[in-house]
Each structure stands twice: as C-alpha cells, then as structure tokens.
Amino acid sequence: MITLENVTKVYSSSQGAVTAVNDVNLHIKEGEIFGIIGYSGAGKSSLIRLLNGLEKPTNGRVMVAGQDIASIKGRELRKARQEIGMIFQHFNLLWSRTVRDNIAFPLEIAGVPKDQRLKRADELIQLVGLHGRENAYPSQLSGGQKQRVGIARALANNPKVLLCDEATSALDPQTTDSILELLVDINQRLGLTIVLITHEMHVIRKICDRVAVMENGKIVEEGKVLDVFQNPQQMITKRFVQQITEPEETKETIAHLFNQYPNGKVVQLTFAGHATERPLIAELIRNFEITINILQGKISQTHQGSYGVLFVHMSGTDEEVAKALDYIRQQQVGVEVMTNE
Ligand SMILES: Nc1ncnc2c1ncn2[C@@H]1O[C@H](COP(=O)(O)OP(=O)(O)OP(=O)(O)O)[C@@H](O)[C@H]1O
Questions:
Q1: Distance 287 CA to ligand 1 centre (A)
Q2: Which residue range forms the structural domain that includes residue 170?
C-alpha cells in the first residue's frame, strides 16, 4: 500500500541544510496499523508530510495507494490526496462550523451535492460515536470528541490510508485509549491502512502490528511489535520499550537489592505470547536448589499478544543458579542478568 524507496528530505534553512529524512526505505502493507516512533526532531512529521504529498522528497520515491505521490501535480495530486485521510494532534477543526459541517467539509471541497454530503456526514457521526452531538460546535466538545470529529472528517472521502500525526498526544490516558480503540475498530471494519507517528510506546503497544523506530532521520529498527518488545536491538528502542516495561522505581529497587544481597543474582526475565502463562517460578523452585525472590513484574497486552517482564533475585550455589538460568532460556524466556552499574 505504501512504499518508500531511498527517500531523503533536506530542508535549507538560514542555519544551513537540515537532513530531516535520510535514505528511508519502508514498506507498509494494506490493512495494517503501522507505527513510527521517535523523539522530537527525529523526522517523523517530515516523513508523514512526504506520504501525503505536502512535501516533496529531495531524493527517492514515495508510492501511496498505487500513486507516485512525489511526481504528480494539480488535479491528479488532489485526487490522490482523497485516498489519504489525516488526523492531527490539535485536531485542526473549523471552529465556526458544527460537527456535521466540519465532517462534511472535505465533501464540499470535492463538489459532492449537499444532500449526499449530509447523509455521508450522518453515517460517519454514527461510526465515530458522536450521535446527538452533530449540531455542537468544536468549542463545546471534549478533546476526545474533537478527535472523533477529526477522524470522521478524515474518513469522509473513503480514503484507503489514514495518517495520524501524534493524534492522541493532547489527550488524557483514558481518552487516548478510547481513540485508539476507535482506530482499531475502523481498521477492522473498513480495512483501512493506518500509519501513525508518536513518541509514546503505549500507543504502539496498544494498536500497532508493526513499528519502525526513527532517529536522526533514519529508520534504525523495524519489526513486528511483539518481536521488537521482546528483543529490541538499538539503544533507543530499548529506551522506548522501557517506557512500558520498567517503571521508574525499578532502578532504585535493583540498586537497593545489590546492597542488601551482595550474593546471588538479580535477573530480568522477559516473556512473550504463551510463555506469559506458564508457572515458571514454581518449576524453578521445584527443580533447582535455589531461592527466588520476586522483585517486580508486569504483563502488558500488545495488539498481537501478551508481553511480560519480571525482575527476580536468585540465590544458591553458582552451579545451581547457572543451571536454573539455562533452564529458563530453554523455555523461550529472555534472561538478562543485571549488573550493579
Ligand atoms: N520546514 C522546515 N524547514 C527547515 N527545517 C525543518 C523543517 N521542518 C522540519 N525541519 C527540521 O527537520 C528535523 C526533523 O523535524 P520533524 O518535525 O520532521 O521531526 P519530528 O520527529 O516530527 O519532531 P516533532 O515531533 O518535534 O515535530 C528537525 O531538525 C527540524 O528542525
């Protein structure tokens, strides 16, 4: 559905040239929810603007829904853009128009007759759960409701792709979850391909099938969400995964334990899929001459299954602890022996 080939975007500014997107190759499949995560300045917004033709690449090719977005112009580009809906962090609604008229606005631009566009707007109002609010103005809506209007408006022209630019960053956690659930619902009902950019791993965990990590204009890591969670390769990816798995106090707890128990090992275990449901600790205690103290644990749900992290303190003879660690590895559970640094 979307292919980027060797895409580079260089801006020229008063401070010189800035390479915002640096030789990016990406393939996003039809119907998937694809997340791009990165810190501020990584180049995410530039990348998303290249996808809807708001920016032209300095080099490379951008194909969206069968169209070479960078090389088309005028009427052809406007038509191609109708296949690409977009929602924004700050909603970008028209404040003087009602919910219904905001949603119907793209249809007005596309020259759809009034009765048809109002009918379509009412269908979309139902789809995004805004029934009863059609005559309200944006200022009378909550943040979550505003984003629902944004989503309905983005879907007005029946796009094939929905681009989400930090779409939940201005919302509280509960509202974020309800908007993410709506995006999954739309993805499943309409078969829409969704590309979202975010700096929050929670968003990726909750709804994405695959994720790309962006740093300094490059995609430094890419894969299925559960695989990336279980086995992050780059330092930056590990930091993003820690947003979910490792509460702030973990480091303090571990430092405290190193002082309290100079002997034994503090071990981080990571589980994915079915491994999260096994009685591993009971098996270890039963089969090896060791003691285990559970320090901290958490299981998170991703779009593709569970992912869990458990911090334990193990003590016993070096030989028994080594045997127990081998046993854990054989159960497809990740093992990392923590060091006191
Ligand atoms: N129009 C522009 N002109 C000059 N430089 C730009 C322009 N747009 C972005 N940049 C620069 O390109 C780099 C990437 O910016 P971009 O906005 O794409 O990153 P981002 O990951 O979306 O970050 P943020 O979430 O803060 O917007 C930054 O160094 C930024 O200053």
A1: 55
A2: 2-243
Q: Please report the DSSP string for 314-333 in residue order.
A: EES-HHHHHHHHHHHHHTT-
Instruction: Write the CATH number for 321.
Output: 3.30.70.260
Specify whether 81 is located in the same domain as 185: yes
Residues 122 and 18 in one domain: yes
Could you tell me the CATH number of the domain that includes residue 101? 3.40.50.300
> Which of 70-84, 190-204, 257-271 reaches the highest mean pLDDT?
190-204
- Shared domain for 28 and 172, answered yes or no, is yes
Mark whether 213 and 265 lie in a shared domain: no
Provide the phi-psi class of 96: left if phi over 0, else alpha when psi is between -120 and 50, else beta.
alpha
- Average pLDDT of the residues in 181-207: 95
CA of 104 to the centre of ligand 1 (A): 31
Q: Tell me which of 243, 264, 282 is where a domain ends.
A: 243
Q: Whose CA is nearest to atom 25 of ligand 1?
A: 40
Are residues 213 and 99 located together in one domain of the fold? Answer: yes
Nearest CA-CA partner of 67 in 56, 57, 77: 77
Ligand 1 centroid to 18 CA: how many Å?
9
Mean pLDDT of 237-250: 80
pLDDT value at 93 more than 90: yes
CA of 130 to the centre of ligand 1 (A): 34
Ligand 1 pocket, Cβ-based, cut-off 6 angstroms:
11, 13, 18, 20, 38, 40-46
Q: How far is the CA of 184 from the centre of ligand 1 (A)?
A: 28
Average pLDDT, the chain: 91
At how many degrees (to 10) do helices 143-155 and 114-127 cross? 130
- Ligand 1: residue of 10, 45, 168 to mutate (most ligand atoms within 8 A of CB) is 45
Question: ipTM of this model?
Answer: 0.96
First to last CA, the chain: 46
Place of tokens 């490792």: 246
Residue 341 has pLDDT above 70, yes or no: no
Confidence of residue 218 (pLDDT cuts 50, 70, 90): very high
Atom of ligand 1 nearest to the CA of 197: 22
